[in-house]
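One such shown below:
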Amino acid sequence: MGGCSRGVAWAVAAMALWAAGGPVSADPARDLAGNGSSVEPQMPVDIKADSMDYDRERSVVLAKGHVIIHRTNETLQADWVELNVDQHTAHAKGNVVFTRGKAVWKGGEFRYNFVTKQWTTGPFTAVVDPYYIRAESAERSTEFEYVLHNATLTTCSNAPTAPTGCWTRAL
């Protein structure tokens, strides 16, 4: 589908949920994890892209071009996203920006589970106030546990030319 409007984007998402056996609401902001998940039941989601296709056999929506997936306080933007409706996961590539609340992550590739909130990533930069983070890769395995590989953490927005009062730590 080329040049999807919000209505067409909703139709593709509704079709994906229906085909996956999940409930389909009349609300265009229907939840991907709405199949009785006790983690976050009935949370709204909005998907927009230049084009979207649905693979019924795999229960996958493939969104291309200016993809924006918004859910509560989370937004995932990318050039390309493969969204698995059954597993509630997204694999995003190209100019990826993930925002949760005030935290902003930017990189080239991002894998995310909308139910468990676990993610993995390649090289990235992030702003999690008051910190600025750069790493070769990272994972979020639990709500409070992040593993950063070859990372730099700083309180300075312009590191490494840090002004007095800022600190930088290589991890």
Observations:
- The radius of gyration is 18 Å.
- The CA atoms of residues 14 and 93 lie 23 Å apart.
- The chain has one helix and 13 strands.
